[in-house]
Amino acid sequence: MRVLFAGTPVVAVPSLDALVAAGFDVVAVLTRPDAPLGRKRVLTPSPVAVRAAELGLPVIRAARLDAAAIASIEAVQPDIAGIVAYGGIVPPSALTVPRFGWVNLHFSLLPAWRGAAPVQRSIIAGDDITGAVTFQLEAGLDTGPIFGTLTETVGAADTSGELLARLSHSGAVLLAQTLSAIDAGRAAPQAQSGEISLAPKLTLEDGQLDWRQPALAIGRRARGVSPEPGAWTLLAGQRIKLAPPALRPDVTGLGPGTVELHGKSVLVGTGSHAVELTQIQPAGKKMMAAADWARGVASLESVVFE
Predict the structure, then answer these.
(1) Which CATH code of 3.40.190.10, 3.40.50.12710, 3.40.800.20, 3.10.25.10 fits the domain covering 204-302?
(2) Residues of the chain with CATH 3.40.50.170
(3) Has 300 been labeled as part of a binding site?
(4) Other beta carbons within 10 Å of 224
(5) Strands laid side by side in the 2-7 sheet
(6) Fewer CB atoms inside 10 A, N or C side of the chain?
(7) Is residue 282 annotated as involved in ligand binding?
(8) Is 150 annotated as belonging to a binding site?
């Protein structure tokens, strides 16, 4: 079976590796164009493009699937396309190019969390269980019939980065199994059923912590937005980044946003009990241990996060 693989970030790399290891004829890799990274804005190929080059696979770079990109896909004559976090919409004119269509690996239990940030939204919402599915890509947003499913427990301390890394590896196996079943004529996709929820892409504003909320909700949000866009708060009008805090149900009575030093622990009040800061990045500085930051504050008693 001739396979086109489409993907861009590091979480898509295990799926590319899995398809190659399973013996599929990966005829080309579709990925986003090189992007400027770092302070010097150096043009850098995507992780999938880097891995494709290491594997000696042809790469099609396209920010969107216009006529030229579709012509490049048609030229390699794929039987099927596997797609994992490509980062662009596949238009109807491209969906019909491979004879078996496009199979998407999505990191949620559809129809829950349709959209660009399913793992992040799942953690923020407090889900205990999430997972991944393979489904037939169609014109609707993550609406196609499902081929296969796997489940994954959301750990109490999981960040979205950690959970997504696990799902990227288990999901890679699922994608290879799904394409094998389609190749053998054994695939039987089932229509989605259940409650629909949406997972739009995170913005910088999604990372702001509201200290009036309960500590559990604050912790979930901080873990859900970690590593990107990152949790943050305001101090004297300046934005400072925070690593996910630890829950401290043994400490109550602190007003929301009020910062206090208890022994060597830097605590912040919430709408319920306190949380303990682990790391903090003041404006213009590097991330540091919260205790080191507290030692450099002239009067911690007057510090209140906004």
Answers:
(1) 3.10.25.10
(2) 2-199
(3) no
(4) 25
(5) 59-61, 25-31, 2-7, 80-84, 102-106, 129-136, 146-153
(6) C
(7) no
(8) no
Query: What percentage of the chain reaches a pLDDT higher than 90?
Result: 88
**What mean pLDDT value characterizes the chain?**
95
Buried/exposed code over 188-207 (b: 16+ C-beta within 10 A; e: otherwise): ebeebeeeebebeebeeebb
Task: Give the per-residue pLDDT at 301.
Answer: 66
- What pLDDT shows up at residue 148? 98
Contact 267, 275 (CB under 8 A): yes
Question: What is the CATH code of the structural domain delimited by 2-199?
Answer: 3.40.50.170
Q: Is 109 part of any known ligand binding site? A: yes
Whose structure tokens read 């912040």? 268
Question: Residue 117 is which amino acid?
Answer: A
Per the DSSP assignment, residues forming a β-bridge with 5 are 29, 82
DSSP H stretches of helix in the chain: 13-21, 47-55, 67-75, 92-95, 118-125, 160-183, 215-224, 290-295
Nearest to residue 245, comparing CAs of 263, 262, 232, 261? 232
pLDDT of residue 252: 93
pLDDT, tens only, 4-52:
999 999 999 999 999 999 999 999 999 999 888 877 788 899 999 999 9
DSSP 204: G
